Amino acid sequence: QVQLVESGGGLVQAGGSLRLSCTASGSIGSITTMGWYRQAPGKQREVVAIITREGVPTYTDSVKGRFTISRDNAKNTVVLQMNSLKPEDTAVYYCNANIWSVRIVNYWGGGTLVTVSS
Question: Is 49 buried (19+), middle (13-18) or exposed (0-12) by CB count in 10 A?
Fold first, then answer.
């Protein structure tokens, strides 16, 4: 079994920062792409940032220059550093990973709530 566990959400004022972390555990061969998605109330889940195993990041336009994604392959961890937060960043943030065990399976974490007050 594989689990993704997020931490680091919370309440912050606009302009503040939060750091989200996600660690994969269980029967893991290797992890290819890892990423963060978010879902605001009444909206569809959307990609925020993804990062390849080699460390190449991709960001959605709305967070470019404010968010930074990074990963530690030895620790099976992905981190999202969020700066200059805006009220529109308020959402449940989900960790996602493609993990090789017997075959590649896509996994989701349970989500962590980020609330940005104006």
Answer: buried
The tens digit of pLDDT for each residue in 53-92 reads: 999 999 999 999 999 999 999 999 999 999 999 999 999 9
The number of residues making up the chain comes to 118
State residue 102's pLDDT score: 87
Question: What one-character-per-residue DSSP string does 67-112 give?
Answer: EEEEEEGGGTEEEEEE-S--GGG-EEEEEEEEEESSSEEEEE---E
- Partners of 67 in the beta sheet? 82
Q: Are 96 and 108 in contact (CB under 8 A)?
A: yes
Distance separating alpha carbons of residues 86 and 64, to the nearest angstrom: 13
Q: Which amino acid is at 116?
A: V
